[in-house]
Structure formats: C-alpha cells, structure tokens
Design a protein that fits this description.
121 residues; Nuclear Transport Factor 2, Chain: A; 3 helices; 7 strands; globular
C-alpha cells in the first residue's frame, strides 16, 4: 500500500501532466478504477472524464500547476489536504481543499474538491 502523502502527490501530479496518457497512468496508480471526482464546476466524473477535464483546464491555463500545501490528514477511511493552483509565473491563482474517501487497496475512491474564486488569470 502506498503512503498517503505519496498517493496524494501522485494524484496532484496527474493535474500537472500535459499528456492525457500520463494523467491516466497517474490516476490509475492513485485512484480506484470506479473512483469519482466532484468539485463546484463538475459532478461525478469517472477517470476518463477527469483526464479530459484536467486537459481542458491545462489548455485554459497553460503552464499552471497544482501543488499540495498541507499535510494529509486522515481518519476512518477518509482524508483531506489543501492545495493551490499556481499560474505559469508561480503566482497563486486559487486555493482549495479536497476531501477524499479511500477505497480498494487504500487508494483514493471519492474526491470532493472545494476551492475559492480565481485570484489571477
């Protein structure tokens, strides 16, 4: 079983991967096959839809990256962590927090993201 911090960092790396195949590979490592993702903009995305959604965001905000900013807190099969989206110059665009339910093999199963308004574009 992967350490929680490594799993979350692998998940975050998927948000930064320019190629869809690499996003899919990283999500296969960190996320269950039947995992679901929701945030204020999208609801109940499966892996293929999340790979596509990340691609749209990377096209909209070229050079932007997601970075975990907090420790990974966990208990009773759930976890949370804070993150920021940085623009290509390293300035914060938005910050947020993801709440996750763990599933098969201790991997991420359900992710519910919360984030604030864009700070810069």
């Amino acid at each position: 079983m992967m350490a929680l911090e490594d799993m979350v960092d692998t998940y975050c790396a998927a948000w930064n991967a320019a190629e869809a195949a690499e996003r899919n590979r990283l999500l296969r490592v960190a996320w269950t096959a039947d995992g679901r993702y929701s945030d204020p903009m999208v609801q109940e995305l499966d892996r293929a839809a999340l790979v596509a959604h990340i691609g749209v965001l990377l096209d909209r905000f070229p050079g932007s990256t997601i970075r975990r900013t907090t420790a990974v807190d966990s208990h009773h099969g759930g976890l949370r962590f804070g993150f920021v989206r940085l623009d290509a110059g390293g300035s914060m665009m938005r910050e947020g927090v993801d709440f996750c339910q763990l599933g098969e093999g201790g991997r991420l199963h359900r992710i519910i993201g919360f984030f604030g308004a864009l700070q810069s574009v």
